[in-house]
Amino acid sequence: MAPIDRLRAALLLSAVSALLHVQRPHAAAAVPAVPPPSWPRPQLDNVPPRFSWDTMGGMVFMQLCNPNATLNSPGYPASVMRTLAKYPLVTFEKCVGTFTSGFEEDKVIASCSALKALNPEISCVFYLNTELDFTGFRLFDEFQRHPEYWLLQADGSPVQQHGPDWGCTQGVCPEPGLKLADFSVPDAATFWLIACANVTAHKAVDGCNLDRASHLGSFTDLAPATWAPRNGAQAFNDGKLAAFQKLQGVVGAGPVIANCHPCLEENTTIPGVHSQNLEGFTVAEEWIGKLQVLDRHKKLAKAHYSIRDSSGAGCLNATLVEPAMVRKIERSRAHINETVPRSCCCPKQTRQKV
């Protein structure tokens, strides 16, 4: 082949090669996989509530929230903080800082830090609802980005329920309601409960108060028929119980307090969780029997002694916490002769003498 022909052939081959390169479809860029949620390391410094039969002060607790709390302050005057610091156990409810900027998790850490500065031995507890995704929490924002974790109805739409408005930002919860996790999906169960474990990882927060702790294991009712957990109703109950137990393992000695109304009978107490709540407790044989059940199962009992105000609304007025059977029942905060905030459940009466 003549030199000129070889040059023409080389140029033609180069042109064809360049054309093929331009027309070859590019492979789609790899999307980095989202790592599954993972539990933090076991926490060894969480403080359980101290208890003593010596005085009423050794067996009581306070549960409250201040909607004006901030990322830097619990929002209470110094006199109230000194009173709160006398309690063995303080739980900050769902309306911490609902009218201020920032996430509720961080405001609870700030409130617990302020209490720990006054009393390092106090057990300070974070509130988490297990079936209502209240706005204002970091959990709410993150959960919106994970539809694969949402519990669905049979038609494929998310289950949405209603809760008290005072637990949401600006005192108003969104319509058509609040979502919840599909606990039949292990990653969804982990995602939801590590929201509390991540808060207790801070040295100022010791435990978790788990509200709406229904639909657990094989000893409570299954999820409603309108719910369609991806792996079935029993898997929902089992996954939720397993996540509770894992949370207790991470929190260690700190209290994981489950508010499960049907879990107060001899064969329905929650295995693997140290503490249970008695919401609506009153001086009656039925409730003494439930305390005795929890005592036999070595549970720390957090009993809400509720009264009614003039409007008929329920208020957490006199409250007590016991790791054993009740032997005294009376107005439980009479030992503190100071003014303290009433629970969030009575917003029109923010203070009371006890």
Quick structural gist:
The protein is α/β, with parallel strands linked by helices. Helices cover 27% and strands 15% of the residues. It has seven helices and ten strands.
What does this protein structure show overall?
This protein has 354 residues and is α/β, with parallel strands linked by helices. It has a single domain (49-353), classed as TIM Barrel. Helix content is 27%, strand content 15%. The chain is built from seven helices and ten strands. It has helices at residues 3-23, 78-84, 104-118, 138-144, 186-200, 233-251, 285-296, and strands spanning 61-64, 89-92, 123-129, 207-211, 256-258, 275-281, 300-308, 314-322, 339-341, 351-353. The chain has an eight-stranded mixed β-sheet. A two-stranded antiparallel ribbon has the order 9-10. A hairpin with a 5-residue loop joins β7 and β8. α5 runs parallel beside α6. The longest helix has 21 residues, at 3-23. The termini are far apart. The model is unreliable at 9-28 and 312-354 (pLDDT under 50).
